[in-house]
Design brief:
Layout (H helix, E strand, L loop, with lengths): L16 E2 L2 E2 L2 E8 L18 E3 L7 E3 L3 E5 L21 E5 L2 E5 L84 E3 L6 E3 L59 E6 L1 H4 L5 E4 L4 E4 L6 E5 L3 E5 L1
Length: 307
């Protein structure tokens, strides 16, 4: 239990304090993992980071500790080496609670032109396929509701990349053939836990076989478009990175976007505490004007402290 300041020193029941710890607090949450990178060599788009939320109307999380660790997942790194480095999947975002870790799963990387050499691509949302293969699986955390969707498939005779999956739908399959266009990632999903509706966790677009076919579009929710180079997913939205067009110059696949965690503390719950803080300073704590709820917004790993 943290040391009590003079304002609450007279009683272990002052504000949120109680004997043996703090008063449990129920919070709404939005937790988005890092997105996967795009693939090289007419590669698939990266899958978006897994997205889970209780807002509005879902089951809240209960926090019972004075200091709560919040881990914000990183986007997967793009790659320049199709022979030795397939690119990176995103990493998980996690809220540490007294009853165990509560997580969303990093997005799967977009597949490369020779998927038999680099299998994988599954994650919160799956990475898109490249060259006659299947996209990665989404919702590998096995959550209900699902945290994401599958990456798109690339059909027989097709050399173009398919889109990565997003929180709002699967990556778009690609059956366009040589010289055809790549396809975009699956859309993200909107959420208003911050007080404003924002679309998160869109999948990355695939790369084409020939530059003349054009690049795939970006997906709503921060998914990066395919191209030369592949465009990155948007940080703070968990978007998937874009795949690379072939012949490729410059030969760089798009990074996945970093994730985000937002906790919404109802005003009646917040009133039980003398102090609510977030750290480091990159993160923020604001008040929602219409409701008085406290909004703890984490764009980097940090802590939520209650006293």
């Amino acid at each position: 239990m943290p040391i009590l300041g003079s304002i609450a020193a007279g009683s272990a029941g002052g504000y949120g304090q109680r004997k043996g710890g703090i008063r449990p607090i129920e919070v709404d949450y939005l937790i988005i993992a890092g997105g996967g990178s795009g693939g090289l060599a007419n590669g698939g788009g990266g899958g978006a980071g897994g997205m889970r939320s209780s807002f509005p109307g879902g089951t809240k999380l209960t926090l019972k500790e004075a200091s709560n660790t919040i881990t914000v997942g990183s986007g997967g790194d793009g790659t320049t080496d199709p022979n030795n480095d397939p690119g990176g999947s995103g990493t998980n975002s996690t809220i540490v609670t007294s009853t165990g870790d509560f997580s969303s799963t990093g997005g799967g990387r977009g597949l490369v032109g020779s998927p038999e050499d680099f299998p994988g691509g599954s994650g919160g949302s799956g990475g898109g396929a490249a060259h006659q293969n299947y996209g990665g699986d989404g919702n590998t955390g096995g959550y209900s509701p699902a945290e994401g969707n599958d990456g798109g498939d690339s059909g027989p005779g097709n050399f173009n990349g398919a889109g990565g999956g997003g929180a709002g739908g699967a990556g778009v399959n690609n059956n366009n053939g040589i010289g055809g266009a790549a396809t975009p990632g699956g859309p993200g999903a909107a959420n208003s836990i911050s007080g404003t509706s924002v679309t998160y966790a869109g999948g990355g677009g695939g790369g084409t076989y020939w530059p003349s076919a054009g690049s795939s579009g970006s997906a709503p929710g921060g998914g990066g478009a395919g191209g030369c180079p592949g465009n990155p997913g948007t940080d703070g939205l968990g978007g998937g990175g874009g795949g690379v067009t072939r012949p490729h110059s410059p030969n760089i696949s798009g990074d996945g976007g970093n994730g985000r965690v937002i906790l919404r503390i109802p005003s009646a719950e917040a009133a039980n505490y003398g102090s609510i803080t977030v750290s480091p300073g990159t993160n923020s704590l604001t008040t929602d004007g219409p409701t008085g709820d406290k909004i703890a917004d984490f764009t980097v790993t940090g802590t939520l402290d209650l006293a």
